[in-house]
Amino acid sequence: MSNRPVELEVKHLCKYYNAGRKRLLKAVDDVSFDIYKGETLGIVGESGCGKTTCGKTCIGMLEKTGGEVKFQGKDVHTLSKKERFDFSGKVQMIFQDPYASLDPHQKVYDIVAEGIRIHKLAKDKAEEEHMVLELLDMVGLNAEHAMRNVHEFSGGQRQRIGIARALAVDPEFLFCDEPISALDVSIQAQIINLLMKLQKEKHLTMLFIAHDLSMVKHISDRIGVMYLGNMVELSGSSDLYRKPLHPYTQALLSAVPIADPKASRERKKIMLTGDVPSPVNPPAGCRFSGRCKYCMSQCFDLKPELKEVEAGHYVACHLYDEK
Ligand code: SF4
After folding, report:
1. Model pTM?
2. Does the chain have fewer CB atoms within 10 Å around its N or its C terminus?
């Protein structure tokens, strides 16, 4: 994967919020990673770990506090008006909640056609109609759906509409912000399969945010694990599942359901004790120190850096410091 060009380059990204009384909530704190052209990078972590904030800051939806994000070599936070318009044609988002992100009283046709109109992608009405119907077909909907209002559709169908809307401008990069978490379990796999099919057909690059580790495995080439605003592990998807290195990743994976009942019975679930500390006042050294059974003296005051410990496998943990 690393011989592909870098599509999104994130360096030391920070996103802080004012938490009052001169305190800062460090939602994303010094996070660095690359996304290569044509790959899907999954970012996982518990709710509140900063993964969505990280994704939104990466695509310029949120201002950064520090660091740098470049898309195709251009700093996404300093784009001119014209560059931002071009960027919006290349980078699209699929939202977490299709009930909140689509106007229930709008016609499906108009929702999907909006991007085509804004970016003047159709030469006339007939071409616009052809493009909208093609997009609906691509996401498993049909012409009959086009003239219906959004409120007539189920959650899964609404997410398909959201995907068609995102694809309408023929983007190169999709930011998927927990796109299945608001859907019934029975529908989740369908949406994942649809996204995987579209990614292949349209050679998309994707950043996929999730808290469900079992789903993210199927769609991601590589996975990053976030904990309390930091990236604690980053590796190829199968490597991460086969050999998680960070104690937090090990705990997360030990809770993922496995289909084989025998393997499931034999597996030891790692119970995490203690609460996630506040991002307003995180521990000085390793942010996982209060919950880690391997915690050593240096973990309390020395922050572990994300380092490559095996080819393509990065971890931020003093257990892997060179002896
Ligand atoms: Fe645990 Fe220390 Fe590694 Fe943090 S750095 S995960 S506290 S062993």
Report:
1. 0.93
2. C
